């Protein structure tokens, strides 16, 4: 079926309720195109969505999907992929969902290196709850709950990922459609946990991290000649707080996904009609 | 009833108390004797009193009693802690060469054995507990050769030399007592039989049930007393193509299990106390997304971190009502170790047949207690697997709407929707914790909301009709006194019947393994003069449910010391309750 799959097959018939101009439109389009381009179809794809404007993505896409509770999308994706290595698993959510309430899960998902793709729609604000500071908000960014700014430095998700032993770290910009799609595609094709932070502007609540801001400041790492397989070069990019960039930042070409390390390759949905044939052996162990 | 022997070994945590007790228990089981074990332990790894107790008889034993006949004491505290249970005829084995001076009441038989020196003679001081086991065999007239098999099982993997040394240690202990004491086995004559028994605890039974039922995925986070379920599955589940993940916390554990379940695997997580609180966040999602998931709570003493190594049945309300909003779920409560196995199998079937979370609620007493069973108790041919309304490629067609979309949450008459697992052609759909329509799409439409709530609740009605929500019955069916219990109190209650009978008190016992849905006990309660509900908690959570269901006040026996009920203690309490008025 895969050769006939078009990216629109991944579209549901539900019209997005995102604000006109929201960055999430572009993020989603790129994901759907990347899925189609990598030979997947809705019946073999599982999308796990977080909670937030970004988390609504599961509703607007067509595939097997679960829209869960705030911050826990990664564990769900992990369970899906380990039970069903044959599925393409994509996890998507916001910066609040992933780096605040879900931050504990984030570093553990990274270090587990399960073969799935994690897309964070980073708008540096809480959209769905109407404009509070998020963990990636600038320290002087004024919001309803932080009238003088959060007064804390933003988290650096790439640094967290690198420190946790990530095997694929990337960043894209939702309005640079082609590059965004390419980067997601590379994350899907990566053997292991493919992490992509996507600049996905919130046009309603964030007037600082806007399309114009990213267009003006964004540096493409590929054009810069950055070698993503060079760990030290990746570290330098990641720790450079003054630079906004897109591209694949780090890629471990020797990545061994969790399934291979732990021999988890069975389709766990297939079980016998009764107890397994040798089940009495389980009892005999207690002699 | 055949005479039973109550034996214990106690010392400091780290003294190898557990493995010593287990070896003796296995030896007794090998000799065709029934065994029931219990453990006293504190929440620390080294230091602190700990004991392993064994009750053994040729008849079935299923409870602890207030009597200790033989005690292997490695510390004075072991003696002090057990003074209540020791009696004039008790024998205490200790090592007089060690620095502590054993203070042993005059009436008891003090058996001073140089455990350490004899162990050194056999090849190493570490075997002093085995020397003590040899001594215990001699005191009770139990053939030391039964120990050999248990020692082989325990140490076989470490090489024959170690096994031989241990056998020698046991014999040195036995011979020492033979040569230095004239005890004439203190009158014991431990009968043996040709019966083959298996010896296992409740958590092992749950793990084994999960494997038999086709559980392939387990995610958990270590917590006493649930951890041993994860330990059991690890290393075994792989043989069936499954996998265990030690998650970063319980939130992750339940969400991973949920993910695996949505992917089509039979999936489970287990926890206790503080962990169940964290998992509560996801209960509603499991129910609303209609995901089949078994969530096991091995209760311990709460609230908060409470008493992690102590018994309690305090989480019933949590299992029934935990989580915001109104969430249909099943609550199954095994009443004995063998039922831990069978109810786990059932739990997986209910989960898939009704696409709903099933709470499997056990407790600490059951989880650490080992008991002997004939192996046929766990006859694997009797395990039936019902995956419910799983639809394949062809069947999916029946459930598509006019635009070809799969109605994963179709509001059927019985409340059970078709379930297409990922990969099923044309079955793609999304599910969410948000209120949704038949297609799984978010909605706030008032009619659809009511339709979906009713649909999910209807599953419970369907299950009430289709399944047997029975109770287990013991004692005299015509008795005027009715005792109702849930969870692990059953064994002690059943044995309490013998004590009560001796005193001429007839009692009917109903032991209830299902809390929701649960059997209707109205008739039984109406027929009784006295109704007493027994449970290990302070407020009587199950008694409240019964009063609610039957509009009848009941008497309550509650224990929340952290220690399980004992048979003789229960008999006393029941007699006492009979003299009390029913609360107004
Ligand atoms: C446990 C819990 N706490 C709080 C909320 C409320 N809530 C919904 S979305 C959200 C933040 C979303 O921010 P982000 O992840 O950045 O996504 P965005 O809406 O910006 O795409 C919060 C706090 C919730 N749903 N669940
Ligand atoms: S509030 Fe912001 S993030 Fe949410 S839909 Fe609107 S633009 Fe997008």
TrEMBL record, chain A:
Cofactor(s), by name: [4Fe-4S] cluster; Mg(2+); thiamine diphosphate
UniProt domain Thiamine pyrophosphate enzyme TPP-binding: residue ranges: 51-198
Residue span of region Disordered: 130-156
CDD domains: TPP_OGFOR
InterPro entries: 2-oxoacid:Fd_oxidoreductase, OFOB, PFO_beta_C, THDP-binding, TPP_enzyme_TPP-bd
Keyword terms of this UniProt record: Iron, Iron-sulfur, Magnesium, Metal-binding, Oxidoreductase, Thiamine pyrophosphate
Entry's Gene Ontology BP terms: cellular respiration; organic acid metabolic process; sulfur compound biosynthetic process
Domain Pyruvate ferredoxin oxidoreductase beta subunit C-terminal: 202-263
Biased composition (Polar residues): 131-147
UniProt entry tagged with the keyword Iron-sulfur: yes
GO MF terms held by the record: iron-sulfur cluster binding; metal ion binding; oxidoreductase activity, acting on the aldehyde or oxo group of donors, iron-sulfur protein as acceptor
UniProt-listed PANTHER family: 2-OXOGLUTARATE OXIDOREDUCTASE SUBUNIT KORB, 2-OXOGLUTARATE OXIDOREDUCTASE SUBUNIT KORB-RELATED
Protein name per the record: 2-oxoacid:ferredoxin oxidoreductase subunit beta
UniProt source species: Natribaculum luteum
UniProtKB/TrEMBL annotation, chain B:
Protein name (Swiss-Prot/TrEMBL): 2-oxoglutarate synthase subunit KorA
Reactions listed under catalytic activity: 2 oxidized [2Fe-2S]-[ferredoxin] + 2-oxoglutarate + CoA = succinyl-CoA + 2 reduced [2Fe-2S]-[ferredoxin] + CO2 + H(+)
Domain Pyruvate flavodoxin/ferredoxin oxidoreductase pyrimidine binding: 209-454
GO MF annotation list: 2-oxoglutarate synthase activity
UniProt keyword annotations, A-Z: Oxidoreductase
Matching CDD domains: TPP_PYR_PFOR_IOR-alpha_like (cd07034)
Source species: Natribaculum luteum
Oligomeric form and interacting partners: Heterotetramer of the KorA, KorB, KorC and KorD subunits.
Chain positions covered by the region annotation Disordered: 413-432
Domain Pyruvate/ketoisovalerate oxidoreductase catalytic per the UniProt entry, residue ranges: 13-173
S-adenosyl-L-methionine as UniProt keyword: no
Keyword Lipid metabolism listed: no
Xref: SUPFAM superfamilies: Pyruvate-ferredoxin oxidoreductase, PFOR, domain III, Thiamin diphosphate-binding fold (THDP-binding), TK C-terminal domain-like
Enzyme class: oxidoreductase
NCBIfam families the record matches: OAFO_sf
Biological process terms in GO annotation: organic acid metabolic process; sulfur compound biosynthetic process
Annotated EC: 1.2.7.3
Superkingdom in the source lineage: Archaea
């Amino acid at each position: 079926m895969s050769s006939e799959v078009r990216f629109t097959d991944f579209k549901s018939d539900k019209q997005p309720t995102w604000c006109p101009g929201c960055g999430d439109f572009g993020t989603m389009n790129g994901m759907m195109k990347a899925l189609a381009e990598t030979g997947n179809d809705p019946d073999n794809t599982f999308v796990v969505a977080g909670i937030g404007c970004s988390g609504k993505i599961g509703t607007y896409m067509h595939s097997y999907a679960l829209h869960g509770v705030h911050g826990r999308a990664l564990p769900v994706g992990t369970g899906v992929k380990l039970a069903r290595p044959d599925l393409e698993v994509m996890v998507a959510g916001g910066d609040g969902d992933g780096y605040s309430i879900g931050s504990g899960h984030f570093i553990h998902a990274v270090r587990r290196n399960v073969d799935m793709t994690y897309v964070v729609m980073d708008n540096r604000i809480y959209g769905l709850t109407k404009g509070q500071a998020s963990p990636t908000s600038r320290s002087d960014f004024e919001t309803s709950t932080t009238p003088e700014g959060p007064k804390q430095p933003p988290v650096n998700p790439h640094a967290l990922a690198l420190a946790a032993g990530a095997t694929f770290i990337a960043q894209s910009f939702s309005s640079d459609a082609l590059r965004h799609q390419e980067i997601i595609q590379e994350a899907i094709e990566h053997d292991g946990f493919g992490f992509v932070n996507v600049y996905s502007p919130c046009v309603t609540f964030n007037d600082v991290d806007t399309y114009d801001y990213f267009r003006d400041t964004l540096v493409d790492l590929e054009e810069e000649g950055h070698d993503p397989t060079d760990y030290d070069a990746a570290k330098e990019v990641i720790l450079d707080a003054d630079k906004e960039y897109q591209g694949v930042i780090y890629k471990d070409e020797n990545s061994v996904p969790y399934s291979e390390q732990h021999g988890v390759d069975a389709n766990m949905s297939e079980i016998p009609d009764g107890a397994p044939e040798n089940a009495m052996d389980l009892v005999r162990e207690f002699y | 009833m055949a005479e039973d022997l109550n034996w214990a070994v106690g010392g400091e945590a780290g003294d190898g108390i557990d493995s010593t007790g287990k070896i003796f228990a296995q030896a007794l089981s090998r000799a065709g004797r029934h065994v029931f074990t219990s453990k006293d332990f504190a929440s620390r790894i080294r230091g602190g009193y700990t004991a392993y107790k064994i009750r053994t008889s040729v008849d079935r034993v299923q409870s602890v009693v207030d009597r200790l006949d033989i005690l292997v004491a490695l510390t004075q505290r072991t003696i002090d802690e057990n003074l209540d249970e020791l009696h004039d005829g008790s024998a205490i084995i200790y090592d007089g060469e060690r620095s502590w001076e054993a203070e042993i009441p005059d009436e008891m038989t003090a058996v001073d054995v140089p455990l350490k020196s004899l162990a050194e003679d056999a090849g190493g001081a570490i075997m002093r507990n085995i020397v003590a086991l040899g001594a215990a065999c001699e005191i009770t007239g139990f053939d030391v050769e039964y120990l050999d098999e248990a020692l082989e099982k325990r140490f076989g993997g470490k090489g024959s030399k170690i096994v031989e040394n241990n056998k020698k240690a046991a014999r040195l202990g036995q011979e020492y007592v033979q040569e230095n004491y004239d005890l004439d086995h203190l009158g014991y004559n431990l009968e043996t039989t040709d019966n083959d028994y298996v010896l296992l605890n409740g958590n092992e039974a749950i793990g084994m049930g999960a494997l038999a039922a086709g559980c392939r995925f387990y995610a958990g986070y270590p917590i006493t007393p649930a951890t041993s379920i994860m330990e059991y599955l690890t290393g075994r589940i792989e043989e069936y193509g499954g996998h265990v993940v030690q998650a970063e916390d319980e939130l992750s554990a339940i969400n991973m299990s949920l993910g695996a379940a949505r992917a089509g695997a039979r999936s489970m997580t287990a926890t206790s106390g503080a962990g169940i609180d964290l998992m509560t966040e996801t209960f509603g999602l499991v129910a609303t997304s209609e995901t089949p998931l078994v969530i096991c709570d091995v209760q311990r003493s709460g609230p908060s971190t409470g008493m992690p190594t102590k018994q309690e049945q305090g989480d019933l309300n949590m299992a029934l009502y935990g989580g915001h909003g109104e969430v249909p779920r099943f609550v199954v409560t095994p009443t004995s170790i063998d039922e831990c196995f069978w109810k786990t199998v059932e739990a997986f079937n209910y989960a898939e047949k009704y696409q709903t979370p099933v709470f499997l609620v056990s407790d600490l007493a059951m989880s650490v207690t080992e008991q002997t069973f004939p192996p046929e108790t766990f006859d694997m041919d009797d395990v039936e697997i019902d995956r419910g309304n799983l639809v394949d490629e062809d069947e999916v067609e029946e459930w598509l709407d006019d635009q070809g979309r799969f109605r994963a949450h179709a509001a059927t008459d019985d409340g059970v929707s078709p379930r297409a697992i990922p990969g099923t052609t044309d079955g793609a759909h999304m599910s969410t914790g948000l209120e949704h329509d038949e297609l799984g799409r978010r909605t706030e439409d008032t009619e659809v909301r009511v339709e979906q709530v009713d649909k999910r609740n209807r599953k419970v009605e369907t299950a009430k009709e289709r399944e047997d929500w029975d109770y287990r019955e013991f004692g005299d069916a015509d008795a005027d006194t009715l005792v109702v219990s849930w969870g692990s109190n059953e064994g002690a209650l059943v044995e309490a019947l013998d004590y009560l009978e001796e005193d001429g008190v007839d009692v009917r016992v109903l032991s209830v393994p299902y809390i929701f849905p649960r059997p209707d006990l109205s008739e039984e309660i109406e027929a009784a003069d006295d109704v007493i509900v027994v449970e290990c908690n302070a407020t009587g959570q199950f008694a409240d449910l019964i009063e609610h269901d039957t509009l009848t006040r009941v008497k309550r026996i509650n224990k929340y010391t952290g220690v399980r009920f004992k048979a003789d203690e229960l008999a006393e309490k029941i007699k006492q309750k009979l003299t009390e008025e029913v609360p107004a």
